[in-house]
Amino acid sequence: MIKIIRESEFYKHILTIISGSTLAQLIPLISEPILVRLFTPVEFGVLALFLAVASVFSAVATARYEMAIVLPKKDEIAINILALSLFISIIMSLFSALIIALFGSQIADLAGSKELITFLKWVPLFVLVSGVFQSFNQWATRKKYFANIAVSKLSQSSTNAAVSIGSGWAGANALGLISGQLSGWTIASFPLIYKFYKNDKKLLSSITKTQIRIQAKEHRDFPRINSAHIISDIGQQSMVSFLISALFSDRILGFYSRMIRIVKVPAGFIGTAVGQVFYQKASEQWQKDHNIRFLLISNMKLMAAIGTPMFIILALFGPQIFGFVLGDEWAIAGVYAQILTPWLLLNFIISPFTHIPLITNQQKKFFVLSLSINMLIVLAFILTYYIQGNIETALIMISTIQVIFHVYLAWWFWKISA
User: How much is the pTM?
Assistant: First the structure.
């Protein structure tokens, strides 16, 4: 196995990102015990609500055109998609500013958080920096600049932690946490932009209005279908955050949101590394013979081997781990983690391969599947609350639905991969 990894370019690229991101994975874990002593659960709840709103816009900051940057055979074509993505990011930032100006108060009322309105003015900046990062991140994936991607991840996590902790020491409220997020994604773009400027700036002369329009039309399924898909996914996550805040409290949302961050962020670095390299390699392989099943199976086994021990430990000792690391008050977050462990494990195994419907032109069915499950989750959460009235039962329902969905998703990805 070790020999195969050493000789495989595919696994070398994955290891480049993961090894370069090792510290980036540790930084959130190391900083968390400090942050929970500088900020209250309510302030973490406000951050979760801010991200719930900002993520809806940032998810489509480029109208998802950045996902098409990897696909063209020629760089001269792909550079026009990059330009299109960056232009749309500016438009979406201005659009989000208009929405916040007109409906900011109503959004805060819907979330049941009066404090949220103070921080919504930062949403447009979040959308802009997210769009720039997403665009250059996909360009780096296309060009196999995986070392720069690793540096980018380290820059993001370290800047986020440093700014958040520094703001907390200075006595800042939830704005300190929001500033950490904004600063992290801004700095994360620098290594990617630098590599582009150093290696690829000559391609700028290939950008034309005509070619941008051609690429916008050729890849129109990304804004039409993939954007709707990602809005559905982010919308479901945002609605769950809003519902927890409105039906329970910002405090419970704070426990839930930090649990998700602590569990998903380190695991996400691994999943993202595998997913980025897989997308680039699978796109090439699909163009050759329309068969990526072996690539899918081998990497899904890799994710299962990595994730299963971690999540078994979480399932057995969740409250003890959270209580020891973050303090006794946060042990309840470990209970939430235990409930969601089956879903979190399957999500860890499968999430790197969600690009398969893009590669195999199955976006429409994937969107319908995701939209259906997202609506079911929100509905089940509301019904469970009114029947049982406690967060634990609602989370059990969410975990059960997600497990069934992810098992089906794994089978479907296998079916369409050849």
Answer: 0.70
